[in-house]
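Reading group handout, session on sequence-to-structure problems. Before we discuss, look at one worked example. The prompt was deliberately terse, the way you'd type it at a terminal:

> structure Bleomycin resistance protein

The input record follows.
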Amino acid sequence: MSDEITFKRAVPIIPVRDLDAALARYRRLGFTAEAWDGPQRYGFVDRGDVSLHLTEWDEHDPARTAASVYLYVSDADGLHAEWTEAVGPLDPPRDTPWGLREFAYVDPDGTLHRVGSPLKS
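And the output record:
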């Protein structure tokens, strides 16, 4: 094989029960959000270089089919304050042994959003 294949990016596809509610929730979290103009209930949310796709799925059961994403950000404490204002109280960020400041948010569809930024030296 003469040419090496380069991966460009990965975009998780997250199941949701109600696409409109999920798009509104991501807007409150500071993402741009829009529904796909097609026959399936599908949406796109973006913030900075991060993209997530949402798919409305009638059989989605957060106890069995939830997703998780890890978001690397520049300031976990700042984003924690922003998201707490948007969705209500969240457990506070904490320093980890692996060198990140992290917090977590589980949305109403059961998706775990783990968020981390590098610890300041």
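Points for discussion. First: The first helix runs from residue 19 to 28. Second: Residues 84 and 90 are 6 Å apart (CA to CA).
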